[in-house]
UniProtKB/TrEMBL annotation:
One Pfam family matching this protein: Histone_HNS
Major localisation: cytoplasm
Region described as Disordered: spans on this chain: 59-107
Protein name (record): Histidine biosynthesis protein
Keyword DNA-binding found: yes
Amino acid sequence: MAVDIKNLNHNQLTDLISKAQVRQNELRKEKVVKLREKVHALIKAEGYTFEDIFGGARGKAKRSTGTVPPKYRNPANPAQTWSGRGKRPHWFNDALKAGKKEKDLAV
């Protein structure tokens, strides 16, 4: 199935390229599926599970969503703190405008 690309106009050539790229991606995915099946079969044949070999966590590592300790404290109201992340609280901006420095507000 040889295609004479010299006789194709711009639109036909663009269409051929896009179809070839789609087919290339399909072939790559098929190859990955076959390889994955081989790996799983080999692991099973040796008497192990995927998790035994590669660990229980598959995919992206999860980020910790714990709380961050406060980095700044409001001198007027010690109950108000800020971790230094996200938008600055009003009391922090007001203190800076009043002449305080960030290090003066540090915990």
